[in-house]
Amino acid sequence: MKTAEPPLKVLSGKGLWLELEGGQHIMDLISSWWVNLHGHSHPDIAKAIYDQSLNLEHVIFAGFTHDPAEQLSARLLPHLPDNLDHIFFSDNGSTAVEVALKMAWQYWANRGDTGRKTFIGFEGSYHGDTLGAMSAGSRSIFSQVFGKLMFDAEYVPYPSTFLNDPDVEQKEADCLRAVSNLLLKDPERYAGLIIEPLVQGAGGMRMCRPEFLQKLDRVLKDHQILLIYDEVMTGFGRTGDWFASIKSQTQPDLMCLSKGITGGFLPLSVTACNEEIYQAFYSDDPLKTLYHGHSYTANPLGCAAGLASLSLLEEDPGRFRNMHHEHLGFAHELADSPVAKNIRLCGTILAMDIVTGDEEGYLNQVSGTIKKLALERNMLLRPLGNTLYLMPPYCITSDELQRVYNGIHDILGRI
Ligand code: PMP
Question: Which of 34, 143, 259, 271 to mutate to test the pocket of ligand 1 (most atoms within 8 A of CB)?
Fold first, then answer.
């Protein structure tokens, strides 16, 4: 509170645009922390929530069920990798990850394999701010003070790449070797590996290739270790396909979804799992139950929003499939920039590292400068330290994108 700028008051949001107190209108180019898919206050989703709230606003989801949850599961599953058959509801991204970790851990315990207690994660990863999600994620300034509260995990390098990266294959080979070495050294020790597939979000929009995920998937299947995809950010079109798992044609055993699941209207999340994991819990023994329930699990309003958002995605997937081409044109224009390096893109996400004389990372001060320059140009940008990125809602038009690219050119010229 002492060092933060006073927050800006938002009066309303319509499509790409937010109206601030004082009358300024700004473009939300980070989809409000990556949740918004179709623009703000989309009338279809607003109406779905309203209609649902007149019928059933919420009900306990233990021993009871309801149409919105059943319909959302039924309509979501066909979009997920074929091997995922079951949906567990909760209410935010961190929790979707906690549930996946608990499922993976208990899967082995329920099978009597109690040695498998360690998770493998990636350097630079972020899976949420609750204790389990923090523990599985890479240690960072976000979690540093809680070191002793967290459980240990093993970390391997993320083969972070960018356009025209000559070293990408080497990085991938190094990473796969690091994973294999862990698994060969102590094959009975690991419960699972968790990864943000294709794009690490909070760690700095670091991107890897689908080819890497395919190789990783194979290594884990060979060693029969559970593969957990945290698609909380990458889900629902962000990577240019429905999910990173679909884009890479890989099959995680567990998958976490949240953020865009309701189009950015309400908190909701799911953890999907395969039949084999489900069967490890399907038992007469009460101790084999996954004891995990939240008050707002499968909230009907969230599910109704999720159904309306899915319909919008299904009606026009070109909106998220095609943004890549426009970003690519801009990326080529930036190729010779002395201030932007490691330019990378994945579907609707474009990122670059800004060259400054200071240490790279989240605390780099250029973030504040860019935020301010962007606001002066009616753009909401919120760099992660010296990583500048765009992740707009899919309703952005080509003209608006062009305006944003021009704005960024202008900002880069001033720093
Ligand atoms: N996983 C990833 C990949 C995320 O980007 C985030 C949020 N930024 C989370 C998990 C945590 O989600 P939430 O903030 O909804 O708890």
Answer: 259
Ligand 1 midpoint to CA 415 (Å): 30
Q: Which two tokens stand for residue 115?
A: 């040695």
CA of 200 to the centre of ligand 1 (A): 11
Residue 291 token pair:
């004891």
The per-residue pLDDT for range 57-88, each reduced to its tens digit, is 999 999 999 999 999 999 999 999 999 999 99
How many other CB atoms are found less than 10 A from the CB of residue 195? 25
The verdict on the CB of residue 230 being under 6 Å from ligand 1 is yes
The per-residue DSSP string of 345-397 comes to EETTEEEEEEP-SSPPSTT-THHHHHHHHHHHTTEE---BTTEEEE---TT--
Distance, CA of 147 to chain centre: 24
Nearest CA to ligand 1 atom 13: 93
Q: How far is CA 308 from the centre of its chain?
A: 20
Q: Which tokens belong to 225? A: 């270790």
- Which positions ≥6 away from 14 have C-beta within 8 Å? 39, 40, 41
The model's pTM is: 0.98
Cα 233 to ligand 1 centroid, rounded to whole Å: 7
Instruction: Give all strands of the β-sheet with 17-20 in edge-to-edge order.
Output: 10-14, 17-20, 25-28, 379-380
Q: What's the pLDDT band for 32 if we cut at 50, 70, 90?
A: very high
pLDDT tens profile 145-182? 999 999 999 999 999 999 999 999 999 999 999 999 99
The pair of three-digit structure tokens given for residue 189, joined into one six-digit string: 């020790």
* φ, ψ of residue 214 in degrees (nearest 5): -65, -40
Interacting residues of 40 by C-beta distance below 8 A, sequence separation 6+: 12, 13, 14, 15, 16, 17, 18, 28, 32, 264, 393
- Which atom number of ligand 1 is nearest to the Cα of residue 269? 15
| Residue 196, ligand 1, Cβ within 6 A | yes
Q: How far is the CA of 83 from the centre of ligand 1 (A)?
A: 24
